[in-house]
Design brief:
With 436 residues, the protein is of the alpha/beta class. It contains 13 helices and 19 strands. Among the domains are: 3-125, Methylthiotransferase, N-terminal domain (Rossmann fold); 129-233, Transcription Regulator spoIIAA; 380-435, OB fold (Dihydrolipoamide Acetyltransferase, E2P), CATH 2.40.50. It has helices at 12-27, 51-67, 78-82, 84-88, 109-114, 164-168, 176-188, 214-224, 242-250, 267-273, 279-292, 311-323, 351-375, and strands at residues 3-8, 31-33, 41-46, 72-77, 98-101, 121-123, 146-150, 152-153, 172-173, 193-197, 229-232, 257-263, 297-304, 328-333, 380-385, 395-399, 404-407, 417-426, 429-435. The strands form 5 sheets. A 6-stranded parallel sheet has the order 2-1-3-4-5-6, sandwiched between helices. A 5-stranded mixed beta barrel has the order 15-16-17-19-18. Strands 7-10-11 form a 3-stranded parallel sheet. It is globular, with a radius of gyration of 22 Å.
Length: 436
């Protein structure tokens, strides 16, 4: 039995795709591992969303080569798509059996591995011309209570800081019947929650016959597998509408949680980023979400230190964020990505200034999260329990509205569902009590 090491960097879509590789390889009789040495085959699913992500991908490759000196090497993902020439010239790869596989050819990775080893190959294709999403079914998404389901790939927004449209290609959607089939596989496997993910899932269905919308897909999913909870990974602000919020409010198995990228709280910066909304429109969307789903968790992405961001603009962005009724922030310092428009912008913000601004926004995030958590004390929520206890032996998980909870309980609740009364705030979680 051949031993295959899979290393995954980057986003939820990569994690889903690596799970699909695992499914195919295990069905072919191979043993798949996620760490260690002595593998016969190494698959590295790379990331290139920032310059540092590309460097991490190269480091992962070199580490795998060092730890598995006899292994056949497969490099795939966004860095392989973006930097095939650089990878082919990588000195550590010389004399090794390796292949480069592009994002639009990932559905051929397992088949390629099962072929007799031969000369080094590149299966890159032209991702910009891809017209259909790769079919990558997953049987088991690790030893977890929840699973990712990739319903869409690609992006056509071309934000000035982002390389992803060049590495993932145009938006392509998985047909609804195939999404349902994957969800049913997860349900049969005992998964309690499915997180719908993609590169730009608000564009779901626009490339399919009949143009089925995300809301109609979510409607079908929630009815077909009522025992499974559904969570939406991320939606652009202008893609949130009354129909979606009404469905989320009506269905008990659609989690009241929205993650909405903002990226900047200043209109001039938003325009330079090529984000197609204003802070006024964003405020209205958050206000609408709060009115229709008063207990929902609302997360926001924010990018700090974009080229040309002045101290005054940052202060105004901070004031705007303070005015919003949200739950938490994901804060990222701007990282120059060669090949993007913003990489050529003047007035790059010094690293120290970016770090200071990140710290300010992370403190704001902590304050907002604490306020939201305090508002939930005394409430009882269903909690999907993780498969392992915390360092103090307590069960842990998240409520439907994304509150981190820890509580005492028996082992038979692991990977299960518990109703938990939220009792006491402690640091970044709440202690609760399981209610029979």
């Amino acid at each position: 039995m051949k031993k295959v090491l899979i290393t995954t960097l980057g986003c939820k879509v990569n994690q889903y795709e690596s799970a699909a590789f695992r499914t195919g390889l295990e069905e072919a009789g191979m043993k798949v591992v996620s760490r260690g040495a002595g593998a016969d085959i190494v698959v590295i699913n790379t990331c290139a969303v920032t310059g540092s992500a590309g460097a991490q991908s190269r480091q992962a490759l070199r580490r795998a080569l060092r730890n598995n000196p006899q292994a056949r090497i497969i490099v795939t993902g966004c860095y392989a798509e973006l930097a095939a020439k650089e990878l082919a010239a990588e000195q550590d790869l010389q004399g090794r059996n390796y292949s480069l596989i592009g994002n639009s050819k990932k559905d051929r990775l397992v088949e390629h591995l099962l072929q007799e080893e031969g000369a080094n190959e590149e299966l890159l294709g032209t991702v910009a011309a891809a017209s259909e999403i790769c079919r990558l079914p997953v049987r088991r998404f690790g030893d977890r209570s929840r699973a990712y389901l990739r319903i869409q790939d690609g992006c056509e927004s071309f934000c000035t800081y982002c390389i992803v449209p060049f590495t993932r290609g145009p938006s392509r959607s998985l047909p609804p019947d195939e999404v349902i089939a994957q969800a049913e596989t997860y349900a049969e496997g005992g998964y309690r929650e499915i997180i719908l993910t993609g590169i730009h899932i608000g564009n779901y269905g626009r490339d399919l016959v009949g143009r089925p919308a995300l809301t109609s897909l979510l409607d079908r999913l929630s009815l077909t597998t009522p025992e499974v909870a559904y969570r939406i990974s991320s939606l652009e602000p202008l893609e949130i509408d009354e129909a979606l919020l009404a469905l989320m409010a009506a269905r008990g198995n659609i989690q009241p949680h929205l993650h909405i990228p903002l990226q900047s709280g200043h209109n001039e910066i938003l325009a330079r980023m090529n984000r197609r909304y204003t802070t006024e429109e964003f405020y209205q969307k958050v206000d609408l979400c709060r009115k229709r789903l008063p207990d929902a968790a609302i997360g926001i992405d924010i990018l700090v230190g974009f080229p040309g961001e002045t101290a005054v603009q940052f202060a105004e962005s901070l004031a705007f964020l303070q005015s919003l009724d949200f739950t938490y922030l994901h804060v990222f310092p701007y990282s120059m990505r060669p090949g993007t428009v913003a990489a050529g912008f003047a007035d790059q913000v010094p690293q120290k200034v970016k770090e200071e601004r990140v710290a300010v926004l992370r403190r704001l995030s902590d304050e907002k999260r604490t306020t939201f958590y305090q508002s939930q004390l005394g409430r009882t929520w269903p909690v999907i329990v993780e498969g392992r206890r915390d360092e103090e032996g307590l069960l842990q998980g998240f409520t439907a509205n994304y509150v981190a909870v820890r509580f005492a309980g028996p082992d038979d609740l692991l990977h299960g569902l518990a109703n938990v009364r939220l009792q006491k705030l402690h640091d970044n979680h709440i202690f609760g009590e399981s209610i029979p």
